Amino acid sequence: MMVIPYGVKQSYEELFMKINPLDAAAASKNKSKDVHLPSIDVNFGSNRILSGASLTLAHGRRYGIIGRNGVGKSTLLRHIAMRDVPIPSHITILFVEQEIVGDETTALESVLQADVWRDILLREEASLNAKLTELEAENDEKRFDDARDEAQTRLAEVHARLAEMEAESGPARAAALLAGLGFSEADQSRPTKSFSGGWRMRLALARALFVKPALLLLDEPSNHIDLNALAWLEDYLQTWAGTLLVVNFTQFYSTKSERDRNLRKEYDTQMEYRKHLQAFIDRWRYNANRAAQAQSKIKILEKLPELTPPEADETETFKFPETEKISPPLLQLNEVTFGYTTDKVLLKGINIDVGLDSRMAIVGPNGAGKSTL
């Protein structure tokens, strides 16, 4: 799970606290988590993507952003995630855009560390308890009483915050999320660097779901996880308490295609009806017996809305120079076996011949070795 900042590279914790400061979360009680921005501008470099646009998100609703490639869907999400548009500061935001960077941290620990507030408060709790233990060992009773009262007051506040965010059940919740996304108990103890890109994308999703932000932003999640994980995610999000904003490029094309078909059908039907009316008018307009009917048809024709056929998408035309054909095969693999470690072989006995006319698709679950191949 990563939000892309502009310019300076920051750690996940620094970026999380910059976007979701702890004091803002404390002030979020009894505040509306709806978003209503009457006029926003969004730029990508020197290009203006949105100008004077309005954005309204009712808390707890699910929203999809659809549109063709390059119109600025992901850019809008990044601007929201970085608060480059004025989202109220008490609304927590997380943007799942790409897989996490793998390291020695286990999958389970990675999910637990995603909730930076929980992590900071747990560290403060440990520090305060250590301080109280240290004070008890001193002989200065007055200093002990004053410092103890201060530490205990703060410790009570920390405990209240941790209880509010259900920190104690964190490991169980994290394990359940990972299990839902397909991580076995053994997988949860593996270092994150040992997972493929698809599995690290699942980790990014698990981390975001664990944090439970008020506003969750997903950028085409179906591009990065397999069908089993996607089915689980869809079921899980049915009961998501926060607001969900998802970019969906595939849905744009299915929706647009259906809409264009309906518009074309409506247009063709009206054109036939216009043709029928006009033929009646032309035939009977000057006939004394049918003139009234002809006038009635003229009025109907005049009241018909002007429909236009759906516009075709803009296309670009490219020309490439002719080249000499390459002798086959372009690529040949004979009994290829590969693994990153000797105890876990990903590919075994692969035989492939690729020619100029080959059209091939590689399908399989996350971690099967598709990208490796």
From TrEMBL:
All copies of the ABC transporter domain together span 35-292
Q: Name one GO molecular function term.
A: ATP binding
Q: Which residues form a coiled coil?
A: 118-168
Q: Which Gene3D superfamilies match?
A: P-loop containing nucleotide triphosphate hydrolases (3.40.50.300)
Q: Could you tell me which InterPro entries the record lists for this protein?
A: AAA+_ATPase, ABC_tran_Xtn, ABC_transporter-like_ATP-bd, ABC_transporter-like_CS, ABCF, P-loop_NTPase
Keywords from UniProt, A to Z, are:
ATP-binding, Coiled coil, Nucleotide-binding, Repeat
Protein name in the entry: ABC transporter domain-containing protein
